[in-house]
TrEMBL record:
It catalyses: a 5'-end (5'-triphosphoguanosine)-ribonucleoside in mRNA + S-adenosyl-L-methionine = a 5'-end (N(7)-methyl 5'-triphosphoguanosine)-ribonucleoside in mRNA + S-adenosyl-L-homocysteine. The keyword Nucleus applies. It comes from Aphis gossypii (Cotton aphid). This is mRNA (guanine-N(7))-methyltransferase. InterPro entries: mRNA_G-N7_MeTrfase_dom, mRNA_G-N7_MeTrfase_euk, RG7MT1, SAM-dependent_MTases_sf. GO terms for molecular function: mRNA 5'-cap (guanine-N7-)-methyltransferase activity; RNA binding. The keyword RNA-binding applies. Keywords: Methyltransferase, mRNA capping, mRNA processing, Nucleus, RNA-binding, S-adenosyl-L-methionine, Transferase. CDD domains: AdoMet_MTases (cd02440).
Amino acid sequence: MSEVPKSEEPLSATIARHYDNGENNLSARNESRILYLRNFNNWVKSTLIQEAVIMLRNSRIHDGKMHVLDFACGKGGDLNKWRNSSCMEHLVAVDISPGSITNCHSRYEEMKRRNKYLFDAQFIVADCTRVNINTLFKDPSMKLHLVSCQFAFHYCFESLQQAECMLKNVSENLVSGGIFIGTIPNAREIVRRQKECGKKQFGNSIYNIEFMCDIDKPFPLFGAKYNFHLEGVVDCPEFLVYFPVLEKSVYLYNL
């Protein structure tokens, strides 16, 4: 009798489990060898958010009551960045990891205890590359002024269908004149380093990249999978984002 092969675990479950088990210790973080990289990444996010808020404030489309959707919110590391936006009224925080959402919600409640005035918030566990996120909103008709996806948008490039679902989740929920901001790995730099070494795997004592697709053929526009390890932070599959494809795709969704 032949054995029925076990079905492979969905990649989304692998990613969610990885972030569920992620480190949440401040003292350990401060001793990390990548502390300055983390600080730089935080500066990048703070700058993007600040610039977007200023643009929205100048456009006056939110009347001092800004609504924000934060895709891949993680454990809530950006909550203070949103709190510092004086016009903030409502945040929808979404992540694929139940553990991260629990931490994010707890951090929000602690902030609420310490601050007399704080924006309202909703916390959702969902894979935004596979579901229409507004069906999970408390108010499905709510429109947003700003959508942010920091260091996570590349996960939707697993397939064309997932990228389309993600972009639909952005465009359908933004008001006219709203802004979408995000940060992704530089695919050109990753490919350059791979071509330079000529191997599937490369890196150093801090990071390691191993391609899970055929490097002897042109990389596919979607599904160009590699495993990314960054000390103490990431150890899971990711996907290359060919930026010209992203630029063309967003225009199809009126972004």
